[in-house]
Design a protein that fits this description.
16% strand; nine-stranded mixed β-sheet; alpha/beta; 525 residues
C-alpha cells in the first residue's frame, strides 16, 4: 500500500516538472483525442513520444489533471487497490476537480488490474483517462476483458513529417502558440468529441488549410520550399523519433538509434517473449530491417537458414509474429478477395520508422520513400495492401466511413491465430508455392474483404505508386501498375509519389496525379 502523503508528493512534483521544466511541446494529433465514457489507450513503439502527449494533455487540463509514471521507483509495489488512494489524495489537493478529473497514467502495464478502475471512473464519475504503455501489452487483445469495448485505442508513431517540420521550424523561429501552429501547418487528424476518425481528419485538414497563412504557402511553394526539402531529406535519413530529431550531431543520432534498437530488441522482444534462439533472432532481425519495402517469404527464409543453425518453422513464425506485435515492423499483404491468396503470398515489410532501416546502397532511397509513405498511410487510417496481378502497384488503401483505426485491422484481433496450423499443414503444397506465411496473421485485415470493386456503400479505395524519379526507363511500368490497380478498384484516379516531380496526366482514362512525397505528407492537394 502506497501512503497518501507519497502520492500527494508525486502529484505535486509531477505537476511542477510538467509545467515548469518540460520544454515546449510539439502538438501531436493524439493529444486532441477525446472519448467520453472510454479509456484512451496510447500505444506504440518505444520512444515515439507517448509520454510527451500526456504532458501536452496535462497542460491543457492543468486544473483537473494528475500524472503518474508507474516506472517511478517511488511507486514500486503499487497495486490496483492504491488507485483509491490516488483519487482521495488528488481531491484533497484539488477538491474543485471532483467529477471532472483527468487521469494520466504512464506505463500502466506495471499495475495488474488497472482496467477496472479506469472503467469505473470513466463510466460513473465523468473522468477522463489516458494511459500509455508497452505496445505489446496494450494491444486490443492484450487488455483485460473488463475494458474491451470501453477503450479507444490510438496508435502513436514517431513524428510525421509535418510534426518534424514544426519541430525544426520551432527550433529556428520559436514555436509560438501550439493551436496556431496546428492551423498553420494543416494538422490532418483533428479528433473531437462526437466525431469519427475520418470526420476528424477531414475537419482538421479543412480548418488547417482554410486558416493557412502566407508562410504556409511559402513552405509549400515559395522561398521556404528549398528549406522544407532539406528538412525532408533529414527526416528521410534519420526518421522521426523525437529525441533523434532534436539531436544536432549525426554521431549522436546514430548512437540514439542504436540504443533504441538495443532496448526494443531486449525489452520488447527477448525479455518479453523469452526469445532464446539468438542465431535465429539475429538472422531474422537483420532480414527484416535490411529488406524493408520488399517482399519477404518466411518459407524461403527457412530454406535458406535451416542448415546454418537449428530452428523449427513453427519457431520462425512465432518470432516473426513477435516482431509484428511489438510494432517494430509492419507486414503488408497482397490485395485480393481470396483469403487463401492473401495468406499464401509473401508479405512486404516496413519498419516503424526509417531511422530503423538498414541501408547499404544508394538505391535504397526509393525504398526509404516507400517506407515513409506506408507509415503515413497507416497513420491516417485504412487497411493497406500491395497490388500484384500482371502489373504491380505499391499500395491499395481501403477505408471505411467512420473507421476507428486502420492500424488495428493490420495488428488486431486474430494476430498470430492458427500458428500451429499454418506451419504444420501439408508441406507438399507449401513447397510448391514457397509461401504460406500470411495465414493466421492480421485476421481482421482479411475478414470481410469482399471488395465489390469499390461499390459497397461507405467503402473507399485509393491507389498509390511510389518512385524516387519517373524516367523514360520506368515511367511506362510505374504508370501501368497504377492504372491496373485503379481499373481493378474501379476508381478514376491514382497517385504517383516521387522525390520532387509534379504534374498530372491521363493514362487509359485514369487521371494520374504525380506529386512530391514531402508535399503530399504536408497535406497539400
Amino acid at each position: 500500500m502506497i501512503s497518501k502523503n507519497i502520492i500527494k508528493e508525486l502529484i505535486l512534483s509531477n505537476r511542477t516538472f510538467i509545467l515548469e521544466s518540460v520544454p515546449e511541446i510539439i502538438p501531436r494529433a493524439a493529444a486532441d483525442v477525446t472519448a467520453p465514457g472510454k479509456t484512451v489507450i496510447l500505444y506504440g513503439i518505444r520512444r515515439s513520444g507517448k509520454t510527451f502527449i500526456l504532458y501536452d494533455i496535462f497542460r491543457g487540463n492543468r486544473e483537473t489533471a494528475l500524472y503518474l509514471d508507474f516506472e517511478d521507483d517511488r511507486l514500486a509495489g503499487f497495486t490496483a487497490a492504491d488507485f483509491a488512494t490516488v483519487q482521495d489524495a488528488f481531491l484533497e489537493l484539488r477538491p474543485d476537480a471532483a467529477g471532472r478529473i483527468v487521469y494520466l497514467f504512464d506505463e500502466i502495464q506495471h499495475v495488474p488490474g488497472w482496467e477496472r478502475f479506469c472503467r469505473r471512473v470513466t463510466e460513473r464519475e465523468n473522468a477522463g483517462v489516458y494511459v500509455t504503455g508497452s505496445s505489446s501489452k496494450l494491444m486490443p487483445l492484450e487488455v483485460d476483458t473488463a475494458i474491451r469495448g470501453r477503450a479507444w485505442s490510438v496508435a502513436v508513431f514517431p513524428f510525421s513529417f509535418s510534426e518534424f517540420l514544426r519541430l525544426r521550424l520551432g527550433l529556428r523561429q520559436g514555436l509560438g502558440q501550439g493551436q496556431e501552429l496546428r492551423q498553420e501547418l494543416g494538422l490532418r487528424l483533428g479528433l473531437r468529441q462526437g466525431q469519427g476518425l475520418r470526420q476528424g481528419q477531414e475537419l482538421g485538414q479543412e480548418q488547417g488549410l482554410r486558416q493557412a497563412s502566407g508562410e504556409w504557402q511559402e513552405i509549400l511553394y515559395g522561398t521556404k520550399k528549398i528549406e522544407t526539402k532539406r528538412f525532408f531529406a533529414e527526416y528521410a535519413q534519420w526518421g522521426g523519433f523525437p529525441e533523434t530529431a532534436l539531436a544536432a550531431a549525426p554521431l549522436d543520432k546514430t548512437k540514439l538509434l542504436r540504443e533504441y534498437l538495443r532496448a526494443m530488441f531486449f525489452r520488447d522482444l527477448v525479455e518479453r517473449y523469452g526469445m532464446t534462439n539468438i542465431p535465429l533472432f539475429d538472422a531474422l532481425s537483420d532480414k527484416l530491417f535490411s529488406s524493408f519495402a520488399t517482399r519477404l517469404s518466411l518459407t524461403a527464409f527457412y530454406r535458406q537458414y535451416k542448415d546454418l543453425f537449428p530452428f523449427s518453422k513453427d519457431l520462425l513464425f512465432q518470432y516473426f509474429h513477435h516482431f509484428e506485435e511489438s510494432m517494430l515492423i509492419f507486414a503488408v499483404r497482397k490485395f485480393s478477395e481470396s483469403s487463401y491468396k492473401r495468406s499464401r503470398n509473401p508479405v512486404k515489410i516496413y519498419p516503424a520508422d526509417t531511422g530503423l532501416c538498414r541501408r547499404v546502397a544508394s538505391e535504397d532511397a526509393g525504398r526509404i520513400l516507400e517506407n515513409i509513405v506506408f507509415i503515413e498511410l497507416a497513420r491516417r487510417g485504412g487497411e493497406v495492401f500491395y497490388f500484384e496481378e500482371k502489373q504491380e502497384c505499391d499500395f491499395v488503401v481501403k477505408e471505411e466511413e467512420g473507421q476507428k483505426l486502420g492500424l488495428e485491422q493490420m495488428l488486431g484481433e486474430g494476430l498470430g491465430q492458427g500458428l500451429g496450423e499454418r506451419t504444420g499443414e501439408g508441406t507438399g503444397e507449401e513447397e510448391s508455392t514457397g509461401e504460406g506465411e500470411g495465414q493466421g496473421l492480421g485476421e481482421r485485415q482479411r475478414q470481410g474483404l469482399e471488395l465489390g470493386k469499390g461499390e459497397r456503400q461507405g467503402t473507399r479505395f485509393a491507389a498509390f505508386q511510389v518512385c524516387r524519379e519517373l524516367t523514360e526507363e520506368n515511367r511506362a511500368r510505374e504508370t501501368a501498375g497504377l492504372t491496373a490497380a485503379c481499373r481493378r478498384l474501379e476508381v478514376t484516379e491514382g497517385t504517383i509519389l516521387t522525390d520532387d516531380q509534379e504534374w498530372e496526366e491521363d493514362a487509359e482514362g485514369i487521371k494520374i496525379n504525380v506529386r512530391p512525397v514531402w508535399r503530399w505528407l504536408l497535406g497539400a492537394a
